[in-house]
Design a protein that fits this description.
The complex is a heterodimer of chains A (about 150) and B (about 450). With about 150 residues, chain A is an alpha+beta fold. Chain A contains four helices and five strands, in the order ααββαβββα. Chain A is globular. In chain B, the strands form four sheets. In chain B, strands 9, 15, 16, 17, 18, 19, 20, 21 and 22 form a nine-stranded mixed β-sheet that branches. Chain B contains ten helices and 27 strands. The chains are: A alpha+beta (about 150), B alpha+beta (about 450).
Amino acid sequence: MGYIYKDVVDKYSIGDGTKMRDDPIATVLDDLLKLDDILACMVARQNMISVMPTAGTDGFKTEIHEIWDIIHRAMDDVFNVIREYSQTGLAEMEFRLQDYEVLFYVFHETDNALVSIIPALSNKGLIEVEMENARREIQNILNEQEKEKLEIV
Amino acid sequence: MFVGWDIKLPGFEYKLGEKNVAIGLSRKWDAREAGREVARLTLKELSRPPKCFLLFATIHYVDNGGLDELLNGVWDVLPEGTPLIGGTVPGFINNFGCFTRGATAMAVSHSDVDVAVGCGHNTKRNPRKAVEKSTTMLRNEFASSEYVNKFMLNFVSGPQLLSIPGIGYKKVITSGIISSVIRSVFNVSHLLFQKGIGREDEILEQAVKSLPDYHMILGTSMDDYKGIRNFQFINTEVVTNSLVNLGISTDMMIDVKTTHGMKKTELNFDITKLSRNRHFIHSINNKPAIKELSRLLNWPEDFVSDKTLFNTILYYPISFHYNGREVPVVMPAVFKDSIMAPCMIDDGEVSILTVDGKSLISSFKECLQKLDITHPEFGLFSTCVTIMQTLGYKINVFREEIIRYLGGKPFIMFFSAGEGSYSPKKNLTYANMSFNSAIFGYGRGN
């Protein structure tokens, strides 16, 4: 599944507000970001953010900008574990840093994950339901893209 | 009662399908578009125009066009005069999936069903009067119904926190003075501001007294578990602090059941001082309540706080008693040394319960296995939002079990804070962390 991102990886950059246009995965992330308790979300793997919401980091809730750098570095360390164990069934990870929690919803048997940053005191159960819906929707998009590529070949 | 049918706005006509009960879903953000979509997708499956429309929506539409616009969107599609009830919920499960954002609806068009809706207002101020008004509406509507079996969905405005000046919305108050003030204005808050607990336990009791031959389930209307605001729908109106009832009179068989996964521990205690309104436990074992509870559970003092509430006290419900019934409930708030019960309770000896994800899932499977109908047509379920808090997206297991049990037939499970059921044979159950099922169909198993 990771190879799907080859086309996407270098297409967009982060941190400068470059917009993700016409990407169905970005649309899913946009929907997730509209929830009050989702401060930031993205599809990522180690050392790489593959897909951002349409507005990029500009779309993240403002309170996250102060802590974004440190969270981003911590995320990369977590992806070490995901990379190691994703093929053996690792499905979710999370950590708390200061007043925030970072949720990783790993795509099945890949080292990519849907990542969200939420306030530490949020109603996590409700957020988890929508995270799972987003994961499933993105998984479907990726499956469709893979099918289209195979058909072209 | 059902009134004719006509084609609505261009682009929203629908071709009638083949079902007698259908459900729909919308995940659109815009309230008007969501209303249109959920109505259109629900109605297009029906074999004939709807006799009733049950609508649940999450609180997000308040800030994305408004709930009035959500209803306007529904009425762009729904035939004029169709009885409609519903309200805001923190989440729901249906045949399509599990959601904490969106709108879902169920419409019934069975030929052998009569439907009525009722509404009573000011539920926190005067629950008895609200029930009397609503049940009278149903009783009058069904006076000429020839069908034998009766059902009522009680959907009540749920708890709403009072905003404390300088503090905001808090569930754990450590200040003795503020706690004292809140406890003393508890009753006044209900009367004047209609803030506080939902009093849904009293509503269910009154409903049973009014209509003892009805099967019932109870659920409460909420926002996204913040407990700040909630809204109910009755026909074309959005209301607050109300009870809305959906009544079904039918020759179909009806079965209702409540189960919960709570298990008794070996920890018991005596409620030795209870407030006059039966909601505040001031002392247990003759000691300040929260301190003594913490000691029994081996928790450090001050362990229970707003930060830890979701991971501590909510997982140790208490098996209270009231009027001879067992009432297993969670404690939603702490005021200095006193613990608040969400419903009326009696003093005396009670047990500490415990609950985990595995027991919740087993309990729900047990609930379905014990239902009495061999050929279900549709189902309606109310359950506790704390279960969603516990299991997160793993609540999908409930959806899978229901689909298996109903054979793919339509259902909605909505989340609540305070639920219960009643049947003439099984009597009344009010609980938290529970599953309350109402199944309609044919053929008795047992």
